């Protein structure tokens, strides 16, 4: 009798054990609700590889991942489409690497890891499996090493944001193969080398926003860049030579051009500006010649700065030109007229 009793206890314990394991290993069980079992598994692996951080407390085992924070689940397919971790408070924090299990969420359209200075390492190769990934934002982290050239395999990418990291090496020419790309932000890294020739021929939408500021990029910029539209920020680098091809009034509608803090050296006199310009900062270069009179026609211009160059002659009078502070013009070779001093000693 005694033996039989302990046997049945054993038996029930065994059953309990089996049942529990079944819940754990076969997440198709009701506890997961709408959550796709394979997404569930990938998310649990992500949580584990980030050492169960405070940010992911809502990711409780055996609950419906469609209800968790930091992810978005598509209403129709119930697949995870967004993974978004943005540090916004001083509480918690993530450390470690970008989890390679992110590549096991095949319906991801957007990944954001932002503002975690203890996230180090590189971008895992596994994310090239994400054929629906349209936005990759890995900024304000401590990622290092080269910008991976395998990112060219993310064919659905429209936005690539890797700013405020410690990436080194040169920009992979490969990235110009991203045929849906609308914006690329590689600013605030330690990139060297020059802008790849291929960057003038992105096959995708005509508007491209290219942000490369605060790196150690050098050399001449490719002539083909002239075909770019949208905005371009090359400030705080070591570019040299001509940049006048960026101002193509017939070929583009660029509205934001920041070339400041480089060593660009070209004649501004014959440059024709696109009418769409809103922001133009050319300060701290070696630009020479005069400010062309047509610039008065740029009615949308809100920011204008040509200080610290080798410009000369009279500042065009009219349009918005006198509405800018004199520091927008100072420290040039022989630039004069309002808002700077008059030109009386100049045969201009
Ligand atoms: C980041 O790492 C530093 C140094 O290891 C540590 O002191 C700090 O607590 C970490 N911060 C977070 C949010 O993990
Ligand atoms: C382009 O990217 C692929 C990986 O996606 C790589 O194998 C190849 O070497 C790259 N080509 C260049 C020129 O970097
Ligand atoms: C123009 O740029 C110079 C140099 O960076 C700066 O000192 C000045 O304040 C700027 N002026 C305006 C009006 O933006």
UniProtKB/TrEMBL annotation:
List the membrane topology term(s).
Answer: Single-pass membrane protein
Domain of life according to the entry = Eukaryota
Principal place of residence: membrane
As given in the record, the signal peptide range reads 1-30
List, alphabetically, the Gene3D superfamilies matched. Ribonuclease Inhibitor (3.80.10.10)
Q: Which GO terms describe its cellular component?
A: membrane
Localization of this protein: Membrane
Record key words, sorted: Glycoprotein, Leucine-rich repeat, Membrane, Repeat, Signal, Transmembrane, Transmembrane helix
Can you give the residue ranges of the Leucine-rich repeat-containing N-terminal plant-type domain?
A: 37-74
The name on file for this protein is Leucine-rich repeat-containing N-terminal plant-type domain-containing protein
Species: Papaver atlanticum
């Amino acid at each position: 009798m005694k033996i039989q009793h302990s046997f049945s206890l054993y038996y029930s314990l065994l059953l309990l054990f089996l049942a529990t394991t079944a819940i754990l290993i076969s997440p198709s069980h009701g506890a997961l609700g709408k959550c796709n079992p394979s997404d569930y598994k990938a998310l649990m692996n992500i949580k584990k590889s980030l050492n169960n951080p405070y940010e992911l407390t809502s990711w409780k085992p055996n609950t419906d991942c469609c209800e968790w924070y930091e992810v978005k689940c598509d209403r129709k397919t119930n697949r995870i489409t967004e993974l978004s971790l943005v540090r916004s408070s001083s509480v918690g924090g993530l450390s470690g690497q970008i989890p390679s299990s992110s590549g096991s969420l095949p319906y991801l359209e957007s990944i954001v890891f932002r503002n975690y200075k203890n996230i180090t390492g590189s971008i895992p190769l596994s994310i090239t499996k994400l054929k629906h990934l349209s936005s990759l934002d890995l900024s304000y982290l401590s990622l290092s090493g080269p910008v991976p050239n395998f990112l060219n395999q993310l064919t659905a990418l429209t936005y690539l944001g890797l700013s405020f990291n410690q990436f080194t090496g040169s920009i992979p020419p490969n990235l110009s193969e991203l045929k849906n790309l609308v914006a690329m932000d590689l600013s605030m890294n330690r990139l060297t080398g020059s802008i790849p020739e291929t960057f003038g021929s992105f096959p995708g939408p005509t508007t491209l926003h290219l942000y490369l500021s605060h790196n150690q990029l050098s050399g001449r910029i490719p002539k083909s860049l002239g075909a770019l539209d949208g905005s371009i920020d090359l400030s705080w680098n070591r570019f040299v030579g001509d940049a006048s091809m960026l101002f193509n009034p017939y070929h583009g509608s660029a509205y934001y051009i920041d070339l400041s803090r480089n060593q660009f050296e070209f004649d501004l006199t014959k440059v024709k500006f696109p009418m769409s310009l809103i922001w133009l900062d050319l300060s701290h270069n070696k630009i020479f010649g005069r400010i062309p009179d047509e610039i008065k026609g740029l009615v949308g211009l809100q920011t204008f700065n040509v200080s610290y160059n080798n410009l000369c002659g009279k500042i065009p009078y009219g349009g918005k030109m006198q509405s800018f502070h004199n520091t927008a013009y100072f420290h040039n070779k022989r630039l004069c007229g309002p808002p700077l001093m008059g030109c009386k000693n100049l045969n201009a």
